[in-house]
Amino acid sequence: MTVTVEALGAVCRLDRRTTAASGALDRGLGFVGMEHVDPETGQITFGQGSRTGEGKSQAFLFDDRHVLFGKLRPYLRKVALPTQPGCASTELVPLLPDASRLDRSYLFHWVRRRSVIDALMAKNTGARMPRADMSVLLDMPISLPPLDKQRQIVGLLDRAAEIRRRADAARAKARAIVPALFLEMFGDPATNPKGWPLINLGELMVRITGGKNVEAGKGTSRYRILKVSAVTTGQFKAQESKPAPDDHVPASAHYVRSGDFLFSRANTSELVGAVAIVDEAPDDLLLPDKIWRIEWDSERLTPLYAYSLLRTPEVRRVFAVIGSGTSGSMKNISQAKLRRVTVPLPSLPLQVSFAEQAHRIETTARALNAAAAKAEAMAVALSAQVFN
Description:
Order of helices and strands: EHEEEEEEEEHHHEHEEEEEEEEEHHEHEH
Helix content: 25-40%
Mean pLDDT: 88
CATH class of the largest domain: Alpha Beta
CATH architecture of the largest domain: Alpha-Beta Complex
Low-confidence stretches: none
Strand content: 15-25%
Number of strands: 21
Number of helices: 9
């Protein structure tokens, strides 16, 4: 098999044909903005009330021969494979490959690679809103196997991406079952339809432990300190951390431990009070002052019930209200106010039954996580192999 290497500009050009953006729909052309491009699939996803180009003077014309490349903030990976003619924001540049030498889908996968994006970001223009220099893109070398081989490579990459998408979707569905199961077993905390006893959270807590407020270090310390973003999604993310100061010596209570129940006491109104349970804690990872470890009374409360309870919309609204601070950008919940929050408390056996079912669902979700990660690694390795 003969593989040649060319500058992208030798087999692809920028197609800068334009039209008046306003009234594009009147001419049978849908208008595509950056917001309409799905960065994961490359599909153009028009939502309800999708834009029609009003307020735009010019737009690029495209059809199903092109790849649309988002030059504004290229790290967003806004790259699209259109399936029909349309017009696009001038931030989406139509790339027109030479169909006799470069398969369009092969170009799509090549241009989305991390190495390509990093090279463009290294030479971007604009500080706050970086834009890719398209001449840099056209100067980049691209490996060109025969067209039939390019299409085989595309098939492999598409299958790997589809495995990842299916695993991601299945994982999201699995985790969505837990809140529904909670409501079925215990009812909405806002109305407490099953008449559970109402208890202050403080009566269910054994201990609250916070870390120390320190500035980030230079990266030479073996210790890392969690950031609040480690818990905001509800799933513990150990990688969301910063280096500790070089001379920092942590207290033994400040180490993050597997099984810890973490609570973000400070964040925006929407995110304050976020919780997560640590599945596995790396060595030398520390609590910050803005995240507490809460230890519950195991004879009255299971951590998984507490986790689901504190993530319900009703309790989230309470956290937003009791958070102090005049700015919406950062609210803070005091221990005293948290302890006074009233919640329904079902019987421990029912909580245990819920926890067992939730644990099985979470185990499935983690297996799907592993499948998605494996598919992603396969796609990255395959991409590196074929494009290099």
